[in-house]
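All the exercises in this workshop are built on plain-text protein records. Sequence and backbone structure share a record, each on its own labelled line. The structure tokens are whole numbers drawn from a learned vocabulary of backbone shapes. The record below serves as our worked example for the rest of this section.
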Amino acid sequence: MDYQIQGGNKVTLKDRDFIAQGGEASLYAKGNQVFKIYTDPKAMIPPTKIQELACLDRSNIIRPQAVLLDQRQNPVGFSMQRIKQNVALARLFTNDYQRKQGLDTQHIIALLEQMQATIAFIHSQQCLLVDGNEMNYLVDSKSHKKVYFIDVDSWQTPSFPATAILPTIRDYHSSQFSPLTDWFAFAVISCQLFLGIHPYKGRHPDFKKHDLSGRMQNNVSIFNSEVSLPAAVRDFSLIPTPWHDWLRAVLEQGQRSAPPSAGVPAASSMRPVVRPKTVHGSNNFIITRLAEYDSPIRAVYGRNGQRVVVTADKLYLENAAHALPHPAARLIVTPQNLTPVFAWVEQQQLKLLNAHTQDMLNISLQAAQVLVEDNQLFVIYQERCTAIRFHELGGKCLAAPGASWQIMPHATQVLDGLLYQNILGQPWLLLPWKSQSCAVLAVPELRDYRIMSGRYSQGIAMLTAYRQGRYDRFCFWFNPDHSQYQLEKTENIEADSHHFICLPSGVALHLVEDGVLSLFHREQSLSKQILDPVLTTKMQLANNGSMVLFSTENVLYQLKMQ
């Protein structure tokens, strides 16, 4: 479709330019711009509001820039600055994402200070965010040092009041929007970034499990000593003292004020989250301590029967330590001679390194991201997902492109072991389920959701999806040829995490919540739950073949049934 940028050039938007579709509009990317096109042109933001938003001229505020006209010169949308590599701020709430990306409290403080300064600037221009929920921010996914404000067209300006706000960040103690209601929403987001949980979740004996609005109206937050919290919640001592005091005052005591300067973490007066330093067995399980490492464990997996443990700067193949050639390097073991090969992307080129000889493999292939599942390597670049084949000849390890699949370049998310695609508003999964082969399936149950995270392993996919202020978990298990699936949906989960593994036998273990382990077979509907307080969502489940493992902090354990 051809459009005219008012006061500028014409632009042609094709299906390959599609990013996403929401309730009232679709987004397309072209060059350094994003275009929002309304399904119903009558819902188009008034041009005078675009003019009022023009004062918000900061590089991290993605405001409407120019009106987009259709072929009849009718306004149907607008253009915006494009942020090419980004991730939803909500991804940073989780322990899993922070651990894999190597993010610490200083990263979080820097982002919050940037957000605080930007919100203060917005207020100085007589504007309000109003609906400052976690989906209205993006973070650059390379350095995680810059946060972007999006959905700016819904903000309140002097002539255009805002009307919509999600209940998860609503200030129930105010009858009208103001800078203080914006700061209340910011307090909610700050708490989630520091601790990994909404400040009015957890369980209190006087409230039902999901009574978020009741807790908010009565100022019963996680700072209340009677609230019990999941084990995965990060320690309160990570919050700098001034921010801890401000969050407690706003969320628990009902006060309203702008946040202070950050200060430094660690304060002895904060509420502790008690965590055992060692993990012991129980009547259900035998737990064996296997190894302790110099820094926190980021990932554990198996490669052709060999155990792989990844820390901040090293990869341990069984007991042999290898320096990581790149922070995002993944390991593949070749099928012929079991040669360990590191794979990563650098300057949009695939890099492969023989871990034994330290020789780079001779391959020239453009790449944006790599995907590894079940010791298979795939390269993502523009409109293609390409499998990489390894073979060895004369003692030399060789690699070459194999089969490939077409994907939507701007509407594809690379998750853990799978791809999610929003194809013109319809959700699809691409699953690498056997050597040099991917299954592509429509999953209409995910329509109108935003995918936060996902993991696929051995015929099971688990995704966390967001809609209207709520996080739901979708668990798909597929038949042997991946042509059909069964689905289990869990609504309104406490935290975004995928504590599951699937063993070669087809038996899956899913750590549903603290103290609850679900066992089921990927080809059967029967399941069994084991209740045991030794199990916590702080455990990161993994497996090496049929051996069940888990890690906490920098210690690796084996888990066996009694």
Q: What stands out?
A: The longest helix spans residues 105-124.
